[in-house]
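TOKENISED FOLD:
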Amino acid sequence: MSDLRRLLEAAAALSHLLRVAGVPHTFYGSAFTAVLANSFHSDELFCIVESGHHHPFRRVRDALAGNPDYTTMHSPWTNRLHTTYRRLIPAIEIEILVAGETGPRHLDSITVMNVQGIPFLTVSEFVRAKLKTWMIRGLDADAQDISYTLSRYWNRVDINRIPEQDMNHFVSRHTAAAPAWSAIKRKYRM
């Protein structure tokens, strides 16, 4: 089984449990670009969970309670929650992120799309989240995800969701994305 198939299996299982518990969620990471590119390899998958009456971490722990396929581990030092899908060997770890800190604050039909039965951020929200991550970490892997998504799906990007100054800085460092960014700006007459 390929890396991507394993990630998608873990995501589908987690998504099912969160849906049953009524927890709004979506997935984010290089797995999205791997699905779009029909690639077999990906090593990054996060789950973004919306807040409700309780903190997203508690909502996830409650949704997974008693399920033998998933365990959770909260790290209070770093304020991170990791879920581990143990049905596969080796196990798959998915970090839980808080909506609003990563991705949009509200997860709905405007910010989430269904890809192979799994909720992922829309193209615009994915580019926005990856751009924010790239601005902080500066990793080539994030830049490749942004460049690939922009070059292939520029027509699906809502410029109102993309911080223009950050994207201009990105394009100055990664010129392969410049034609797509120019096409987006022309589309919106900017």
Notes: Residues 122-190 form one domain.
